[in-house]
Each structure stands twice: as C-alpha cells, then as structure tokens.
Amino acid sequence: MSDENKSCCNTPAGEPTATRSAAPMWIIVVTLALLFTGGLYLDNHGGWFNSKVYAPYKSVDQLEAFQPKSGAAAVAAQGKKVYEAVCGICHGVDGAGKPGQAPPLAGSEWVITKGDSRLAHIPLQGLSGAITVEGKQWNLNMAAMGAALSDSDLAAVLTYMRTSWGNKAGEVSVDDVKKARDAIGGHAQPMSGDQMSKMPE
Amino acid sequence: MKTGFSVFLACFVALGASWYGFVYGPLKQLGVEQQTVILQSTDNWPQQRTGEATLGLQVYRQYGCAACHTEQVRQTGAANELDVLTLGTHNAEDFKGFMKSLLVVPELMTSSNDIVANLDKWNGQLPLVLYYGQNADAVSALAEKLKPVGVKTDARVVAVGPDIARGWGTRQSVAADYLYDQPVQLGSLRAGPDLTTIGVREPDVNWQLLHLYAPNCVVPNSTMPPFHNLFEVRKKVNGQVSPDALPLPKGFALGDDMEVVPTTEARQLVAYLLTLKNNAPLYEAPFTPVTAAK
C-alpha cells in the first residue's frame, strides 16, 4: 500500500491537467446537419404551427387541396344555403309552409313535377292569386324572389326543393333556369295558378 | 457559490422552455378554438349538450368508461374519388372503350393505369368508382371530360385510416370536437371499441340501456361488464309493467313479477352517449358527406 502511495505521489508529472481544446470538427458538422434536416422536416410537416393543420395533412395548401369543392353534396349544400336565406323565411326551413304566409313545398305537386322547366318560372316571375296546393286553396302573393339570384344558385335551390323533405324529383339544371329566364325576357309578370297549370311542365 | 446565478439561470431556462412547449404554446395554438361552421352547410359545430347529457359525461367519468373506451379517431391519409352515377347514352361496354380513348390528355397520363384497372375490374354496376387516389387534378379533369357527354359524376373527398376502416368514424378527431367536454375523456386503451361516433352507430335509447344492463343481450360475446347498479330491479306494481321497464330478451328476462327500470344516472349516461357523433366535415378534417337524397 505504501508502495502505491509512493508511486502516486512521487511522480506529480503523471497528474492529468485540464486544458482548453477546440471541439472536434465532426461534432460541429453532425450538429449542423441535424439542425438542417430537422428544420427541413419541420418546414415540410409542421404546417407552420397552424392550429387547423392536423397530421396527416402537412400544410395549409395540402388541406386546401382536399376541401370538397364540387359534386352532388356541394350542390345540395349550396341549395340549402340559398333556401334558408331566401325561401325558408316564408316556406319554412322544413318546407312545410306557413299558414297565411306560403304554401308547403314538401310533397307539393307544383314542385315535384315530371318535367323540370316550369318550376323555375315561379321564383323568376312570382305568383299572385288563387292556387291549389295538395288539395288546399291558397290566395297569396309571391314576389319574383329568384329574379336576383344567379342561374347556378337558382338551379341549386330548385334542385334542393325537389330532393329534400321526402321529395324525390329530378334535378333542375343551370340550362333549365337559363331557358326560363330567356323565355320571360324583360317582362316578368306574376302568374296565377290557372295560368301556370296551362304551361307545359 | 460562485456559479449560483448560472445554476439559477439554467434551471429557469429548462423549466421555462418546457412550460412554454407544454402549456403556453398549445394554449396559444388551440385555446382560441370556438364553434365553427360545418363545411358546405350553415350549421354550427359542435353543439352545446343538453343538461341531461352534460351530467351524463360526469357519469361516464365516474364509472371509468375511459379506462376501456377511447374517444379519438385517427386518420392516416385522405383520397380523392370520382364516382360515375349515370352513363348517359352509353352502355357499360362502350363506356369502357370511350373512357380509354379519353385517357391520352396530359392531366390523366399519370393516373391512366389506375383508371384502366378500375374499368377492367368493373362489373357493370353503378356507381362506378372511376378514380381513387391522391391526384385532385385527375378528378377535375375527368369530371370536365364526362360532363358534356351526359355522364353524371360525383367528386368526393374521403378520409382514410384503420380506425375509419373499422367503421368508427368518417374523419379524424380534431380539437374543436372536444369544445364542450369537461373534462375531455380521450382514453388511451381500447379494450372496447372507440365511442366517438357511438350516437350515430347505435342511436336507439333502448339498445344503449340494454347494453349497459347486460352487454351480452345485444352484443354476443361482449367482454364489457354489466352495470347492474345503474338499474333498479323491482317488483311490478300491482302486476303492471312500468312504461320505463327494459324490454329484456329471452334468457335475460327475470321472473314474471319482476322488472328492470333504468335509474336517472343510466338515462343521463345514455343521453351523453347519444350526443357522441363526430360526423360533420370541418375545414381541418374535410370529407364529402354522403347525401341522403338520391
């Protein structure tokens, strides 16, 4: 034991000493490379911390690309939107009509016609006077509520009426609306039920 | 202690950074969540629960439902799909030929193999899934080409993932879905199925009550324990069946003079379960809903 002590303490030159030395080059390179790839990954997958971007979507652009834009659902949604803003106030959001305000659209023989050309005339020209809907007499006035709507909005809302609340009629195309608008031209007069029943469906 | 200040600073930075990352950052990002409008609709999402269902969440919590059930649907991707609804004037055979002749345009070049494969395995039934994949341009190009010839198509966006394939939802769960959950019952173990859309899958009150009383009478071989203490087993009053009594199937029914009646807690829990229906498309979780009217 004393030998060991001696060998230790008698040679102070063997003591390790702390010196300053530069970090090895490879550590610096690897660290920079890791930071760089991490940055790239964050850029590609992080969505820039936008709270609307969840994995698997990687960016707002990609999320935008997957937003449903067209198709039957979009037409139905557009129709519903227009209906609730323009028609639903009087005809009711469920299409059941309101006594003293407007007759029902759900199951109405004027809405679920076989052809799809006559219906567009009602919102484009308006109605006045007596009309029989589902066996019940109505005597009210409707302004040309649809005249200010675009062709595609009007087509969507008419399609919505014909396919909602149990109605199962065909859709109204933008062309049908365009044709009706052209036929009316600049002289839109409100029709009566009698006049309308004489028009081809 | 010469290094006291440095040690303090190091601790402050370490704790501060984790507080920033785990508390402040997420709060800044998601703390502003509020009701949003459902895609292609005028309805708001999510809806505040009724009082009964709000109390039901506490029953859910009290009975530890989250120990075996999760309320989070995951998603691994999304895809664009183009369905052909009607063929116009074509019949099935010459539609195939006509489609193949359309595929030479540049937008469809990269997807033409998929489309040809879909056409080849098509059995003539409508709707035909003409394209399914990542290429949104191909979908719009196809729809554009098919519109003038009277072929009706429907472009759809679908969410994809194992949870969705199991029928547990139509899209992934996002922060906005949990706006009115206090506390959020995410769960982490799936001994039972995910309950995010249970209100859509099993909308019947009686089914839910029977399932709580005796899971095996509606789901054979279910491993869920029966929750008998949510129900009152009592003697029929004057031999008359109570209107609230459970319609127990054969093999589970008690004696002729006994009946099983759900307690208020059971009714609250079921009211809560029936509000679990994450089926609305949102901006952050888009998909095309199936339209009921066809």
Q: In what order do the strands lie side by side in the largest sheet of chain B?
A: 4-3-5
**Which regions of chain B have little confidence, pLDDT < 50, spanning 5+ residues?**
none
Mean pLDDT of chain A: 81
Give the distance, in angstroms, between the N- and C-terminal Cα atoms of chain B.
80 Å
- The CATH topology of the domain at 77-160 in chain B: Ribosomal Protein L30, Chain: A
Q: Which class do the helix and strand fractions of chain A yield?
A: mainly alpha
Written as H for each helix and E for each strand, in order along the chain, the element string of chain A is: HHHHHEEHHH
Class computed from helices, strands and strand pairing of chain B: alpha+beta
Task: Bin the helical content of chain B.
Answer: 25-40%
Q: What's the average pLDDT of chain B? A: 88
Give the low-confidence spans of chain A. Answer: 1-7
The share of residues in extended strands of chain A comes to 5-15%
As a percent range, the share of strand residues of chain B is 5-15%
Shape of chain B: flat
Count of helical regions of chain B? 10
Helix-strand string of chain B: HEEHEHHHEHEHHHEEH
> What's the oligomerization state?
heterodimer
Explain what the structure shows:
The complex is a heterodimer of chains A (201) and B (294). Chain A contains eight helices and two strands; from the N terminus they run αααααββααα. By secondary structure, chain A is mainly alpha-helical. Chain A has a two-stranded antiparallel sheet. Chain A is rod-shaped and about 120 Å long. Chain A starts with a helix and ends with a helix. The N and C termini of chain B lie far apart (80 Å). Chain B is 35% helix and 13% strand. By secondary structure, chain B is an alpha+beta fold. Chain B has a domain of 84 residues: 2-Layer Sandwich (Ribosomal Protein L30, Chain: A). Chain B is flat, with a radius of gyration of 27 Å. In chain B, the strands form three sheets. Chain B has a three-stranded antiparallel sheet with strand order 4-3-5.
